[in-house]
Write a structure and sequence with these properties.
By secondary structure, the chain is an alpha+beta fold. The protein has one domain. 22% of the residues lie in helices and 22% in strands. It is built from 10 helices and 23 strands. The strands form 6 sheets. The protein has a 9-stranded antiparallel sheet, covered by helices on one side. A hairpin with a 2-residue loop joins strand 19 and strand 20. The C terminus is likely disordered. InterPro entries: NAGPA (IPR018711). This is Exopolysaccharide biosynthesis protein. It holds the Pfam family NAGPA. Keywords: Membrane, Transmembrane, Transmembrane helix.
Length: 531
């Protein structure tokens, strides 16, 4: 519809009012032109705002923004197939700066070495002769006595077999846990007095997991997949084969384009004094127990004999110092991104801490940084601690069942080459004591819990094993003799490993390359199963 308008114009020196009819098409065109200009202005403003947000997010040094930018970059760059989440949007110079800072931290850790002022042996087992309330709380000093006694009042049946055989197990994935708390305030999920284990629920900002508190370090060792060299096994399978009551994953493994099946371990692997794989030179750090049941981090095999050991990085706590916080937050990096994490630590009294944090589960647990792991372990008085392989490999098994939720699509996690195990009473009896000298006498370190148990619950010397692989340590410190190189058994287990995709054809003697990497360790790539 047309519209009449009036205009005043000059006509012969006079003004005159004339009327003109504006066509509807011309009106519509002007309206469209006006709207287009408005859209252009709005779009330009939106783009300017987005550009400002992008530049602020990518280049700003405001601490809060830098922290979460670095976390995002590190998390993406630690995966194998999802680096594009960082590289597609963030300039290479920014990514390189973050990863260079991470590599600097790793390089600075190479001079770290655990040192115990007292190198005597740890061994502590609750026996039937100590079946009293006082002895129980002396052994399990992490338990809050008020909440524990309240739980016993409503569940008296757990003491039917006495304190020495008390078993409370509410650690399953569908269990709600107990009303018992630790002295640090965390919920207790399980107490296994016979095996000296407490399992607690660990929660934090965006993460959840579980930690096992193991009172007797002589029961903690490394279990090896029976199919090592061809494929790995689930942590549950490794635990079963070693009569272990509890286990977590440990070493990284060759993972070419995410197809690794856990068969080729990366770095040092020693189990009960027997070496299965040599140490890698470079950034990986030795993590293992000496013959005195003390956890050592960063100590060369040339300087001591390990009873059980693996390699990984980074170190978390060395000689009581938080070696991640001191090095990361000074210059702003954020501790290797958010991932599912596995870690090990030891307190000054010998208590071993085994931590597994679930991840990649939005709404439940995204994962945590290694700085978070250090903080958790320090709350429980760790003086030595290290990160282990994580990602989709992270899992904890207790009494034959997975009690954490792996990021992998399977219930058991990925097949792995080895695991940190806590031996059951039967496992202790079946494991030869490596602390027997070539002359057949016990070493100065004592028998620990690796020998035959007496009626009192304390260990006695076990028979000399078929293969003597370690010399006697001194009473003051671990032996300085190098750990012997003993080839692993080659016969595969009758029990098949879990189904896994085939790994590349890698010679056992080949040196690692960029394509043969641990499944989660920085600065090399992580496992590919980001879900």
């Amino acid at each position: 519809m047309a519209r009449a308008i009036s205009k005043t114009v000059l006509f012969g020196g006079k003004t005159k009012q004339i009327h003109k009819i504006e066509p509807a098409a011309e009106k519509s065109a002007k309206r469209r032109s006006g709207k287009a200009k408005k859209r252009l202005i709005v779009s330009a403003c939106v783009l300017a705002v987005l550009a400002g947000i992008y530049c602020t997010a990518v280049f700003s040094n405001i601490p809060f923004i830098k922290k979460w930018r670095d976390i995002y970059i590190e998390t993406a760059m630690e995966t194998l197939n999802h680096k594009w989440l960082a590289t597609a949007f963030i300039p290479a110079s920014v990514i390189d700066a973050v990863m260079d800072e991470q590599n600097r931290i790793i390089a600075e850790q190479q001079n770290l070495k655990s040192a115990w002022g007292d190198a005597s042996e740890f061994s502590d087992v609750l026996s039937d002769s100590d079946d009293t309330t006082a002895a129980f709380f002396e052994e399990f000093k992490q338990l809050d006595q008020v909440s524990f006694n309240a739980y016993i009042d409503t569940h008296p049946e757990v003491l039917d077999n006495g304190y020495a055989h008390l078993l409370i197990n509410e650690a399953g994935l569908k269990d709600k846990g107990t009303t018992i708390k630790t002295t640090q305030g965390d919920q207790v999920l399980a107490v296994d007095a016979e095996n000296g284990i407490i399992i607690v629920k660990i929660t934090g900002d965006g993460y959840a997991g579980k930690m096992a508190i193991v009172e007797d370090p002589s029961r903690v060792g490394v279990g090896v997949a029976q199919t090592l060299g061809s494929s790995g096994q689930s942590v549950a399978q490794i635990a079963k084969a070693n009569d272990a009551i509890l286990a977590i994953n440990a070493s990284g493994f060759a993972d070419f384009q995410g197809t690794g099946n856990g068969g080729k371990v990366m770095g040092l692997l020693i189990s009960n004094g027997k070496k299965y794989s040599d140490a890698l030179s470079g950034t990986f750090m030795n993590i293992g127990f000496g013959l005195n049941n003390r956890l050592y981090i960063g100590v060369s095999t040339k300087d001591m004999t390990y009873r059980d050991a693996v390699q990984f990085l980074p170190a978390l706590v060395v000689n009581g110092d938080n070696v991640i916080e001191d090095k990361t937050f000074k210059k702003g990096t954020t501790a290797f991104g958010i991932q599912p994490r596995t870690a090990i630590g030891q307190a000054a009294d010998g208590t071993v801490l085994l931590l597994a944090i679930d991840g990649r589960k939005p709404g439940y647990s995204l994962g945590c940084t290694v700085e978070d792991c250090a903080d958790i372990l320090l709350r429980y008085n760790a003086v030595q601690a290290s990160n282990l392989d994580g990602g989709s490999s992270t899992v904890m098994v207790f009494r034959g069942k997975e009690i954490t939720d792996p990021a992998d699509s399977t219930d058991y996690g990925r097949p792995v080459p080895d695991a940190i195990i806590v031996m059951s009473a039967e496992g202790v009896l079946n494991r030869p004591d490596v602390r027997v000298s070539s002359g057949g006498s016990k070493s100065a370190a004592g028998s620990g819990s690796s020998g035959t148990k007496t009626d009192s619950g304390k260990p006695s010397p076990s028979p000399t094993p078929d293969k003597v692989t370690t010399p006697s340590p001194s009473a003051e410190a671990p032996s300085e003799s190098p750990s012997p190189s003993v080839t692993p058994d080659t016969e595969p287990s009758d029990s098949p490993p879990p189904s896994a995709s085939a790994s590349p054809d890698v010679s056992p003697d080949s040196s690692p390359s960029a394509d043969i990497v641990p499944s989660e360790a920085p600065p090399v790539t992580a496992d590919a199963n980001l879900s």
